[in-house]
Each structure stands twice: as structure tokens, then as C-alpha cells.
Amino acid sequence: MEAQDASGAVRRESIHAAFPITERKGAEEKFRRLLEAAPDAMVIVNGEGRIVMVNAQTKKLYGYRREELLGMTVERLMPERFRQPHLGHRKRFLDKPQVRHLGTGLVLYGLRKDGTEFPVDISLAPLETEEGILVISAIRDITERKQLEMDLRLTQDKLRTLAHALMAEGEETQRRMARGLHDGFPQKLAAIGLRFSTLQKKLPSASRSLNTEVRSISREIQAFEEEIRQFARGLHPAILEHLGLIPALQAECGAFSTAHKIPVRFSHSNIPKKLPAEVSLALYRIVQEGLQNVARHAGSTTSIQVILRCTETGVELTIRDNGSGFDPESAKQRKGLGLISMEERARAVGGNFSITSTLRKGTEIKVQVPLEMSDATTANPAR
Ligand SMILES: Nc1ncnc2c1ncn2[C@@H]1O[C@H](COP(=O)(O)OP(=O)(O)OP(=O)(O)O)[C@@H](O)[C@H]1O
Ligand SMILES: [Mg+2]
From the CB of residue 186, how many other CB atoms can be counted at a distance below 10 Å? Predict the structure, then answer.
């Protein structure tokens, strides 16, 4: 490996002073071989920012010959826009030399001889020599990694769009089924029930057992009719469309309390009257899933709070239980869809979703949805 001094003259021993005289030759050779074998481009720069050593990967990555690289200022390996700031970074590094990884949270770029740019990951280490401090940089081309990250992000975005479309489609299908079930079958059953009671009146009073049987069938028809209505209500919350989010949540919390014998305290403050329908539906579904999760997983919960309040920027929903708590990170590894769909529903209306859970203390789910505040007039609270 050749090296070059600050004046640009090529010489072979520029880092020899880094090694004790007795072992210099062997150690230097070992160092050169290590540098040459490194999978990254290795560039060694002196105190003036001139390149004094490079390995084969550097030539390959930047497209320069070794003689061209030696003596060149390191700034020429980066796009114009990074050069001036880099002078300052270089000075600061030399004032306080330590092993560093550059660009955490930043995207850094290298510049090839042909003028093309590529994203890089850079680590720096100081190398003390008798001639002063040299800086070793390990430079890795991360084009492929960046491309993979971008592909992954695109795939995630596509999946998210698909999930939102499926959710919307599912809601629409459920709404249509609910309408059909609610408005069609119960009416037909009611008509059959009516014919039964007419028939009952015409039955001779003597046939008592037949009378009892007909009455029992009538009652079963009525119960069936109510069951279908309830099922339809569960499929799609018509109450949400007709009366709004607050009565719908009141009804949901009340029904849950009765069914699971866990008190649910629902409170709301200053919720604007005209919440967008998709926001109401998202919050309603999140409460439904949140409550189901408490019933199924939270162990000995003795109280649940559902709080809906208006904030400066929008609406905030909190579902809090004092049950078993869980580790949200390990829950993500399981197959459940509830938490994912809650988060997706929040995202679909531009909101965010967070879980705070402590083992044996309970769980708090928070959803914040921004609103156009012109709609969110507190003078017009929702029903
Ligand atoms: N309030 C809670 N208290 C305790 N554990 C909870 C609570 N909510 C969720 N969990 C835990 O998080 C896991 C994931 O919940 P999620 O709703 O995503 O799935 P699931 O309820 O198991 O299945 P699914 O909702 O798809 O029918 C649950 O299996 C449970 O372990
Ligand atoms: Mg669930």
C-alpha cells in the first residue's frame, strides 16, 4: 500500500511512526494487510485533511486510482454541499478525537469520480502517531440498505392502504347486512307472530294443550325477532348514525357492564357536536375492542374508565382498566388483531394510538385524533 505526504509526494512509510521502532516493520505490514482486507473502504487522513492511505475498497467505491486519492483532501470524496460544514466537523473531531459513528439519524453521501452520489455509513477512529493524529474512516456504501428500507416502507404503506380499504369495505358490508337484518327479518317474523295470535283466538277453547303450544311458539318468535335486532345492532351501530357518538358509547359501556359485571365509568367533556362520521366510528370501534380485551385478558379488573374529552387540537379517548396489565412489545408477537386494528383505525383518521401497561396495575389506551377546530366548538357539545 502506498501513501503520500501532505505536499502530495508519494512515500511508502507515512504511518510508520505509529509503531515502536523494534516491531515497526512487522506491525506495519500487519496493519496494511488488515486495512486491505477490510470489507469497507478505509481512508486515513492527516491533520490537514489530506488522504495519506487508502485500501482497495476505496478505489473501487469512489472510482479513483490510488495515486489520485493520495494527497487529495478528504472533502473531495463528498458532494459540494457537505464540504464547508465538514471542515468544521473535522476540526472539532481533532480537538476531541474519539471513536465515533457518523450520521446517526442523518443521511450522508459520498461522491464518486464520475460525479455520482451514493449514501454512506461512516465510522471514525483517531490513530495517534509521532507525526500527529491521523483519522481512520471506515466508509460503507449503503445504497442497497437504503433501497431495502424504501421498499419496506412502500410495502408497509401499501399494506396500510389495503388494511384501511378492507376496514372501510367491511364496515360498509356490515352496515348493509345490519340494515337488511334489522328492517327485513324482524318485520316478517312479526307478521308471522301476528298470524299465530289470530290463529290462537280462533282455536276452540277445548284444545288447551294446543293453545299453550301456540302461545309458546309466539313467544319464541318474539324473542327471535329481538335477537335478530340485537345482532343487527352489533353488526353496525345505527345508534351512532342516529344519535351520535356519546349516546352510542353510553349504550355500549352500559351493555358491557351488564354483560360482564364490571363497572364502566364513561365520562365526556366538551365534545363537539359535529364529529366527522369516520372519527366517531373509529372511536366507537376502538372502545368496543378495548372493552372486549379487558373482559378477555385483564384478569380481575374491578373498574374501567372510558374518557372522551376535547383537547386544544382535537379529541382524546382514554380506556383505562385496573386489571392484570401486559407487555405490549411481547403482545405484538402474538397473533391477535385487536390492538393492530385499534391502531390502524386511529391512524386512518389521522390520529395516534398509544398503550401504557403495568403488570398487576392495569392498562391505559390513549387515542388522539386531530380535528379541524372550527368544527370543534365547545359551545355546541354533542348529545
Ligand atoms: N386490557 C388488557 N389487559 C391485559 N392484557 C391485554 C389487554 N389488552 C390486550 N392485552 C394483551 O394483548 C394481546 C393482544 O391483544 P389483541 O386485541 O391484539 O389480540 P387478542 O385479543 O388476543 O385477539 P383478537 O383481538 O384478534 O381476537 C392479548 O392477547 C393480551 O395478552
Ligand atoms: Mg382483542
Answer: 20
Q: CB within 6 Å of ligand 1 — which residues?
A: 293-294, 296-298, 321, 323-326, 331, 334, 336-339, 363
Q: Cell 460544514 maps to which residue? A: 85
303-312: pLDDT as tens digits: 999 999 999 9
The CATH code of the domain at 238-383 is 3.30.565.10
Tens digit of each residue's pLDDT (9 = 90 or more) over 46-66: 989 999 999 999 999 999 999
> Which class is 3-141 in CATH?
alpha beta
β-bridge partners, 269: 309
CB neighbours of 68 closer than 8 A, spacing ≥ 6? 113
**What is the residue with the minimal CA distance to atom 23 of ligand 1?**
336
- Report d(CA 173, CA 162) in Å as an integer: 16
In the chain, the largest separation of any two C-alpha atoms, in whole Å, equals 126
CA-closest residue to ligand 1 atom 25? 338
